[in-house]
Design goal:
Mean pLDDT: 83
Structural class: mainly alpha
Strand content: under 5%
Largest sheet: none
Shape: elongated
Distance between the termini: 17 Å
Length: about 160
């Protein structure tokens, strides 16, 4: 039952982590000064070309966030870029309320102690290593539990 409860906890958090990954920079403190367009690399300027005409009017925090994001994007291997692009497409299909819930859960996750975050990430990786059939089976086993047992597991996961 411990494995089931740990993996079920991972299921709940897995969606949060997958969809909230693009938000990782959302909680960063604001930058002090803006980033000049000229200070961006040629590759960054190409990537951010849609912002060139309005770059000077953007708030300094937004400039810094875009500069960091473009640098991060450029440092990703092609496979990682493809995965990030897919996550972004999924994010765009979500309803505003779904996005709000995900942001809230991500903020809660970031407030957890580092050891707890590491434990959750480890469990998530374990869940991801299961075959699709094993994942379906685990989800179905959770659904088949009596309501009180499911509630007990949820309460246990929150501790």
């Amino acid at each position: 039952m411990k494995i089931v409860s740990a993996l079920m906890r991972v299921i709940v958090i897995s969606g949060l982590l997958l969809l909230a990954a693009p938000l990782a920079g959302a909680a960063e403190p604001p930058a002090e000064a803006g980033v000049s367009w000229e200070s961006l690399s040629t590759q960054q300027r190409q990537l951010l070309a849609n912002f060139e005409s309005k770059w000077r009017q953007l708030p300094p925090q937004r400039q810094a966030k875009l500069a960091r994001g473009s640098q991060r994007w450029l440092s990703m291997p092609p496979e990682q870029r493809a995965q990030a692009g897919e996550r972004f497409k999924r994010w765009q299909t979500l309803q505003p309320e779904q996005r709000r819930v995900i942001r809230h859960r991500y903020q809660q996750f970031k407030k957890l102690p580092p050891a707890e975050q590491a434990r959750i990430r480890k469990n998530f990786r374990q869940f991801q290593s299961l075959t699709p059939e094993q994942r379906r089976e685990l989800r179905q086993r959770f659904r088949d539990l009596p309501p009180r047992e499911r509630q007990r597991l949820r309460e246990q996961w929150r501790q």
